[in-house]
Design a protein that fits this description.
The chain is of the alpha/beta class. Helix content is 30%, strand content 27%. The protein binds NADP nicotinamide-adenine-dinucleotide phosphate.
């Protein structure tokens, strides 16, 4: 089968190779998926750039890709709940990437039936952004009537998160640039702020939750727009101490992180706020929740561009430009 591999750390175009590789064997709890499509996420190019190498060093060639949709073509003897021919989607476990390929064997516990009313392409873009959104808003205990700021409403996360927050009955502020205002409003956002023309800090006040998809100053400034007791959930800012413990980071590294986080901790205290860094976890129950929201049409997947496996480098480079409108997808089947 054909599979994409990372061959080293550095520039995307110099460190990616499409190779022939043997089809994976299936473990007793695993299903073998014939992959139709794979969603591309910023983590894919960030791993090539080496941002995780201090946490987990890759041995090369290393498989790449976490989001997948496809068909079950084989199953291990202990697998229940899936049959050959089932149409599925998944965010594969962090220690078992490799969805930019024609087949992958994955633990059946992280697999869910794909929403029946959408294509494989659309389904493959959902797991990572959907799980991040559900798990992030669960940490913030989102509820009806909450005022929520979601940065980058036109991105992979933003375009899902707006629709999810609306399904929970929240009032949604979001930011994007001029060209995206119209379609982002159509996702249901109550107030869309054009970051090219307006400063959201003059508009957004006293929100319950900020979903910070942008990091750096956006993380610090989240504390200016939340109400007292509000919640800041970051996808990209400094790691909080609870998350650092959950990651198993040792006390010296946690000490270094606390120094880096001093300003955030001060702002958090001043606002009696919750501050958490979210690390997305594969979770089939959460995927089932997403399936039902999509089948009720509360959430519609937004696809920007679809690339072939042979054009994976272009897909990664395009996403890295930082202006995708919804999701970027790699399709294995032509
Ligand atoms: N911690 C986790 O578990 C986790 C999980 C998922 C994602 N993440 C991280 O979350 C971040 C967002 O992910 P994503 O998939 O949504 O990325 P993405 O799809 O690449 O985001 C692109 C979008 O960002 C918008 N954008 C760029 N600069 C902006 C600004 N200053 N203000 C408002 N919008 C802006 C762009 O809109 P314009 O073209 O209009 O500028 C574009 O639509 C990434 O850094 C990713 O690594 C973390």
């Amino acid at each position: 089968m054909k599979q994409l591999f990372i061959t080293g750390y550095g520039k995307i175009e110099d460190n990616i190779l499409l190779q022939d590789h043997s089809k994976p064997n299936v473990g007793v709890n695993e299903v073998l998926i014939e992959i139709n499509s794979a969603g591309v996420n910023p983590i894919d190019y960030k791993i090539i750039q080496g941002i995780l190498k201090r946490i987990k060093k890759l041995s090369f060639p290393a498989p790449i890709g976490f989001d997948v949709s496809g068909i079950v073509v084989e199953k291990g003897e202990d697998v229940t709940g899936f049959e050959i021919g089932d149409e599925i989607y998944s965010r594969v476990p962090t220690d078992n990437p490799g969805t930019f390929a024609e087949y992958i064997a994955i633990d059946s516990n992280v697999v869910a039936k794909k929403p029946a009313n959408i294509s494989f392409e659309k389904a493959s873009g959902i797991p990572l952004v959907g799980l991040t959104t559900i798990q992030g808003f669960a940490l913030a205990t989102i509820k009806k009537g909450d005022k929520v700021l979601i940065h980058a409403g036109s991105g992979g996360i933003g375009s899902f998160a707006i629709q999810y927050a609306k399904s929970k009955g929240a009032f949604v502020y979001t930011t994007t640039s001029t060209k995206n205002i119209h379609w982002v409003k159509e996702l249901g956002a109550d107030l869309v702020i054009d970051y090219k023309k307006e400063n959201y800090l003059n508009i957004v006040k006293d929100v319950d939750i900020v979903l910070d998809t942008l990091g750096s100053n956006y993380t610090k400034d989240a504390f200016r727009v939340i109400k007292n007791g509000g919640k800041v959930i970051t996808l990209i800012g400094d790691i909080d101490n609870e998350t650092a413990k959950e990651l198993g980071l040792n006390s010296f590294i946690r000490f270094l992180l606390s120094i880096k986080r001093m300003k955030i901790d001060k702002l958090k205290k001043r606002k009696s706020a919750l501050y958490r860094f979210i690390i997305v976890e594969p979770n089939a129950f959460h995927l089932d929740e997403i399936t039902s929201l999509i089948e009720k049409e509360d959430i519609k997947p937004i696809i920007d561009r679809v690339f072939s496996l042979e054009k994976s480098i272009d897909a990664l480079l395009y996403l890295k430009e930082g202006h995708a409108k919804g999701k970027v997808i790699i399709r294995m089947k032509s």
